[in-house]
Amino acid sequence: MTHQTEEKLLQLIxxxxxxxxxxxxxxxxxxxxxxxxxxxxxxxxxxxxxxVYAFEKDEEGKKARGMAAGIKxxxxxxxxxxxxxxxxxxxxxxxxxxxxxxGMNEGCRLTNEDYMAVMADIGFTEAQAQRFYExxxxxxxxxxxxxxxxxxxxxxx
Length: 157
Hints:
The protein is mostly helical. It has a domain at 1-16 and 98-157. It contains five helices and four strands, in the order αββααβααβ. It has helices at residues 2-39, 67-77, 79-90, 112-121, 126-146, and strands at residues 46-48, 53-55, 99-102, 152-155. A two-stranded antiparallel sheet has the order 1-2. β1 (46-48) and β2 (53-55) form a beta hairpin. α1 crosses α5. The mean pLDDT is 84.
């Protein structure tokens, strides 16, 4: 049981360290895509090029009112109940969420095999894992310098 626990925690730490650069890049790409899309100029509302095409279209549909707007509207329609609702929302409540804290012991490190096992577990072939390993680890190291390394946590419930 102890060996299995050690292996699972090594996998968790490796997955966490590999996730950090990928999620950071995902956020950068998402913001970049929006910025690029907003800079595309389609004077006629469409474009047909040699390799690409684009067109603008106003999508019609219904969109649900947001939570804040819904509460505001409810309060306008039902002032007495609205105050009660605001009070219920404002009440603090104690919550218990199971959280697993994890980290590496002083002087210990993850091995290449630890990282490769996690990458294989999410579907990388051995060759793909070998190709992506160095760039991901380099990115992870660069990002770890910008934040405090050490104990991490994850909600488990």
